[in-house]
């Protein structure tokens, strides 16, 4: 049966499933089930498991490996409802404490953004491997809980669990989110101890470039980038983004030329960074040219994010009306990010009338009682209030503040923190 899956995927998989259905139920053992589930697509695995579950339980009860295969399909599909059902059945069968199965459950909840459930499962595990720790670390990092990831790493160190390459990558991600250069340098030292020749690996090298850039050290990021022996399109895109966030628009264009000379074609992520850099540097003509070349020259379809970058590019350069027309003519529905860029430009350039219209549109994207306002929404109210204040429209300012108070919104407060990963 494995030979069928080695053929042309669609045709081979079809033959394998046909053969599997013809096998008598009493002959289908756990090995045969494991082969089918492991080599089938995630969708087919879930469908096969749900349809055949009752028959399977009468002949050969599923073991931990089978449940793990199914949960891995749930992870790939972000199928949390089906994953809960599989977990409940594994718990009923007394298999949930199996290491691989429990780790996959943690991973499932983490990728589905149910981080508290993932942590509860992690804490309840009778034993943990480095894979288990990395699954929880990854969950924290992917969901933006960098502080919690670092605290978990401290627990990992105290438990004397061996750190792996993936551990180091997760820690670099956490440092990138926090922007702590001293902490990032400490993690870099850990990387050098756990990963031989990190600059020869595109994933590790790229993570280091990203970390130093987001921690404010563009020089270190650039030095590491040029020292890397294995660069891929993600590496180049990361360096483009590094230059962009530091306002190095002309350097970005030079790097783009070098990228093409190396035979690396830019992708959607690269263009997001390129357009962002042009916006920060006021390179309107270059930015609009790149936007046109995305489809015509590089066959990259623009997304909402790319359209938003063009709105920001025009708005930052004082071309407020052009930005407004662009956003109205977009083939995709503009999101809050695009409207916020335009609202910010209205305040900056004294366009109070247009700013009032844009602000009301932005606030109208989320209205109670269907949805409650969030902290991000409070910033939209404040931005609209600032537009009115800039033009001395004090009655409108008071109206916005009254609405904020009515909905329990306040200005966003900042915070800072100090880390020591080994104490």
From TrEMBL:
Ranges occupied by PPR repeats: 129-163, 232-266, 267-297
Keyword Isomerase (UniProt): no
Full protein name: Pentatricopeptide repeat-containing protein
InterPro entries: E_motif (IPR046848), PPR_At4g14850-like_plant (IPR046960), PPR_rpt (IPR002885), TPR-like_helical_dom_sf (IPR011990)
PROSITE patterns according to UniProt: PPR
PANTHER family assigned: OS07G0578800 PROTEIN-RELATED, OS12G0156900 PROTEIN
Organism: Platanthera zijinensis
Keyword vocabulary terms for this entry: Repeat
Gene Ontology process terms (BP): RNA modification
Molecular-function GO terms, alphabetical: RNA binding
One Pfam family here: PPR_2
């Amino acid at each position: 049966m494995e030979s069928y899956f080695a053929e042309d995927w669609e045709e081979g998989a079809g033959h394998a499933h046909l053969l599997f259905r013809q096998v008598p139920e009493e002959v289908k053992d756990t090995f045969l089930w494991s082969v089918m589930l492991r080599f089938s697509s995630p969708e087919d695995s879930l469908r096969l498991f749900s349809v055949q579950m009752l028959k399977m339980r009468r002949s050969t009860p599923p073991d931990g490996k089978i449940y793990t295969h199914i949960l891995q399909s749930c992870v790939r599909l972000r199928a949390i409802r089906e994953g809960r059902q599989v977990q409940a059945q594994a718990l009923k069968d007394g298999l949930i404490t199996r290491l691989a199965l429990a780790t996959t459950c943690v991973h499932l909840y983490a990728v589905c953004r149910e981080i508290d459930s993932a942590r509860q499962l992690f804490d309840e595990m009778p034993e943990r491997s480095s894979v288990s720790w990395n699954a929880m670390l990854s969950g924290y990092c992917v969901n933006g809980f960098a502080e919690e990831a670092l605290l978990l790493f401290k627990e990992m160190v105290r438990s004397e669990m061996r750190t792996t390459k993936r551990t180091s990558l997760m820690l670099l991600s956490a440092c990138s989110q926090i922007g702590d250069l001293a902490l990032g340098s400490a993690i870099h030292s850990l990387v050098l101890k756990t990963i031989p020749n990190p600059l020869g690996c595109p994933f590790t090298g790229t993570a280091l470039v990203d970390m130093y850039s987001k921690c404010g050290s563009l020089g270190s990021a650039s030095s590491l980038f040029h020292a890397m022996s294995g660069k891929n399109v993600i590496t180049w895109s990361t360096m483009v983004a590094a230059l962009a966030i530091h306002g190095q628009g002309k350097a970005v264009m030079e790097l783009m030329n070098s990228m093409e000379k190396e035979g690396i074609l830019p992708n959607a992520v690269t263009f997001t960074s390129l357009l962002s850099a042009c916006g920060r540097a006021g390179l309107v003509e270059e930015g609009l040219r790149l936007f046109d070349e995305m489809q015509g020259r590089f066959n990259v379809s623009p997304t909402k994010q790319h359209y938003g970058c063009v709105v920001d590019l025009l708005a930052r350069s004082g071309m407020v009306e052009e930005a407004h027309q662009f956003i109205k003519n977009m083939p995709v529905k503009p999101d809050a990010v695009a409207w916020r860029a335009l609202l910010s430009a209205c305040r900056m350039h004294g366009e109070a009338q247009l700013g009032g219209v844009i602000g009301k549109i932005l606030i109208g994207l989320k209205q109670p009682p269907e949805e409650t306002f969030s902290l991000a929404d409070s910033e939209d109210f404040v931005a609209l209030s600032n537009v009115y204040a800039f033009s001395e429209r004090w009655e409108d300012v008071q109206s916005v503040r009254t609405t904020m108070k009515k909905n329990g919104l306040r200005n966003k407060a900042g915070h800072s923190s100090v880390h020591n990963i080994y104490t």
